[in-house]
Design goal:
It holds the Pfam family Cytochrom_C. This is Cytochrome c domain-containing protein. The chain is mainly α. The chain has a single domain, classed as Cytochrome Bc1 Complex, Chain D, domain 2. The protein is about 65% helix and about 0% strand. The mean pLDDT is about 85. It binds heme C. Heme C binds next to α1, α2, α3 and α4.
């Protein structure tokens, strides 16, 4: 193999490895948010069900942890939050919080 081709392949591998961690996290957040979007519209609109856009990462995380801990606040959100691990709550909160940061 020619040296140029070999170093190009090596560079590609390094990029792939260094990006996969952050990308996997963002993918998980996006996938989870897609399940939220069947009830909560992610464009900030909607009636009845409160919008979760613009709440911020900390507020989202705390709300999900509270829903997971207690059935009394809301049965639907309790069931949803129960299915999420700490890590999943963190990544979906991070993803959804970012959706609000784009000025419309
Ligand atoms: C089956 C429908 C449904 C799905 C799916 C759903 N939610 Fe909800 N969510 C609701 C309803 C209904 C409420 C209002 C509950 C209440 O009045 O306490 C709510 C409330 C919330 C709140 C509180 C909003 C506020 O203003 O305090 C947050 C945060 C939230 N949901 C986040 C999520 C996230 C994140 C997901 C995805 C992992 C999700 N929800 C998926 C129905 C849903």
């Amino acid at each position: 193999m020619r040296p140029v081709a070999r170093s190009a392949i090596a560079t590609g591998l390094v990029l792939l490895v260094s990006q996969s961690g952050a990308a996997a996290e963002a993918d998980q957040g996006a996938q989870l948010a897609a399940t939220c979007a069947s009830c909560h519209r992610l464009d900030g609109g909607g009636t009845g069900i409160p919008s979760i856009i613009g709440l911020g990462e900390e507020r989202l995380t705390n709300a999900l942890l509270a829903y997971r801990a207690s059935e009394s606040s809301n049965h639907i959100m309790h069931a949803i939050a129960l299915s999420l691990s700490d890590e999943e709550i963190a990544s979906v909160a991070r993803y959804v919080a970012k959706q609000g940061s784009n000025p419309r």
